[in-house]
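Q&A log
Question type: sequence-to-structure
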Amino acid sequence: MNSSNPFKNFKADLPASIVVFFVALPLCLGIALASGAPLFSGLIAGIIGGIVVGSISGSKIGVSGPAAGLAAIVLLAIKSLGYENFLVAVVIGGVIQLLFGVLRLGIIGYFFPSSVIKGMLTGIGIIIILKQIPFFFGMAKNPEGDFAFLQVEWDNLISGLLNAINALISGNISIGATVIGIVAIGILLLWSNVLSKKGKVFKLVQGPLVAVVVGIVFYLLTKDSSLNLVNSQLVSVPVPDSVDSFIGQFSFPNFAAIGNSEVWITGFTIALVASLETLLCVEATDKLDPDKNVTPTNRELFAQGTGNIISGMIGGLPITQVIVRSSANIQSGGKSKMSAIVHGFFLLISIILIPTLLNKIPLSVLAAVLFIVGFKLAKPSTFINMYKLGWKQFLPFMATVLPMVITGDLLLGIGLGLAFGIFVILLKSFQNSHFLHIEDKSNGKNKIKMTLAEEVTFFNKGAILKELDSLPRDTHLELDVRKTRYLDNDIIEILEDFSEKARNKNIDIQLISERGISENPDSFIQFFKLRPKST
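Response status: OK
Response body:
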């Protein structure tokens, strides 16, 4: 894009921005619902993500807003801290992201194993699905907490699920909410799997928007019937009657909580997870971009940090770049950041001009949208594919998913997943430290060749020591270190100790290196100190 003419591609960007708006509106409300936050906060995050982040970001086709990946963190943080204190954590998270950008940490996503990242996204998807069950069936009395059955404790999770199942069996559900929820899922599946492939009109008008419109029509037509929906089963955003009342809708952080350690932990968690999700989305959208633009990751972190500071200051949810909106932007022909910016203005206009209409949207329709979002994050095929990759991928994956789903603690899941990932690395290093081969027998002695790996550290002590101690008497050992570029001092000491044992067991040692061949070296320590640095 020509920076001196931001409207150069506006003919392509305007239609794309309309599509992104249609996708973003129900998702902003739905993710706020899943997060246990005021629904208005999701719209604030969508507006800031479009206008502010879109303006600063170096991405031409990425779109930011409230993300499903942060819903689990936000849900627990609001419950523990209260909303105004939680907003302080959002601001802190934004400041930390600014520092990430300044310190050029745009590569941090590469330091997390893909199995752990996939486990994180899968766990988030399952949590989102579980959290929407009461809203889908119209069982929730208070969208912001009273029926937030997904708690930290295991017994609350189980009891919550049992209560939901019992409500279904006993018929303690809203028939109207359930019917329109099922219809909404049918529309979303029909749109994504069939109609979206039939013509441009079905790409311009997105399935979530159609589901929302049908939900509003259903509510209006059934107001006086047995299928009617009560106010607690509908979206509830403030309806301003003046400029002052509009400004009064915004919440502000309680900076008196700045000394609370839990606020700082939450802020760092938001910064880390939001940055990871953004960087993963950047990588995915750059691959999808037909123009193959490359997004500057450090600038993206700076933009996201700025957006989160502003969002937290006025009552919005945390922001990330979002793959759903970004892919919709690409598929709709968006060419520059103007499509993201304009979609943000459309969201702003909607909360000013049509809040009354927004309040006619059934919560079960938003739950249906989030069921699909959650399913895409936690597809059964993901479990199958991870299993097929072998236990070294599947174990860290499941070690991430299970703690998240059981406790709702995303950091615990990531921590355990990383721990298992490190265990796999250490085990792999243990197994690959050396290669042992019995070649033949000559002069009554076993001839055994041991080739050390390129890097041998103290992690490999156990494996090498076990092999050396198991060598039988009267053995000829060839120790090949020609490929070894780093040999830990711990390993040299093991070889030094073994040379003493070898004399007692009549074991001959032949050391092969880039310097040549040494028969029964007197001192391994002296030898490796004198060897060329490249060896």
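Response note: The mean pLDDT is 82.
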